[in-house]
Amino acid sequence: MTTGEAISLAEVRVGNSLKGQEKVEMQKLTFVACVLLAFVLLLFGVVGIVHAQVVRYDFDKDKDFSKYRTYRWVPIKGADQVDELMAKWLTAALDTELAKKGLTKTDADTADLYIGYQTASRLAMSLGT
Predict the structure, then answer these.
(1) Measured distance CA(102)–CA(34) in Å, rounded
(2) CA-CA-CA-CA torsion for 119, 123, 127, 128, nearest 10 degrees?
(3) Distance (Å, rounded) from C-alpha 98 to C-alpha 59?
(4) Closest listed residue to residue 49, CA positions, set 110, 128, 119, 102
(5) Would you tell me how many other CB atoms lie within 10 Å of the CB of residue 74?
(6) What angle do CA 122, 126, 129 make, to 5 degrees?
(7) Would you write out the chain's pLDDT as a tens digit for each of its 129 residues?
(8) Residue spans per domain, the chain
(9) Burial of 82 per CB tally in 10 Å (0-12, 13-18, 19+)
């Protein structure tokens, strides 16, 4: 084997090993891309489940609420109670909205409105195509 043949043979071996490294790098990139895609799809699925909520409320549609000025929070007997943190969050959010309507919160028994709430949760999964 001459020096020229040895160099050519070495170039072929180096070239083949680079192709092997490129193949490994491509496999790594493909794996990372698949993991990221799975994560994004999972994230959108979870967000879709979290936002799937139904809010129901009831009030007397024939009543003129503009004359009411004060309200008081009251528990609903027999209703499932949420934990303390959630109760504070709910009442604070509703207090803010009621204040925007001109209502004032009171602890007096002479409040114009008595307001109570109850919550329920149910896990339902829907797979769309």
Answers:
(1) 54
(2) -10
(3) 15
(4) 128
(5) 12
(6) 175
(7) 555 554 554 455 555 555 667 777 777 778 777 777 777 766 666 555 555 567 777 888 898 888 999 999 998 888 888 888 988 988 999 999 999 999 999 999 999 999 988 877 666 666 665
(8) 1-53, 65-115
(9) middle
Q: Length of the chain, please? A: 129
The encoded tokens of residue 23 equal 């193949």
Reference 117, options 92, 89, 93, 87; nearest CA is: 87
Cα dist from 104 to 60, 75, 95, 109, whole Å: 20, 18, 8, 14
Give the type of residue at 41.
L
Which pair of tokens denotes residue 53?
């909520």
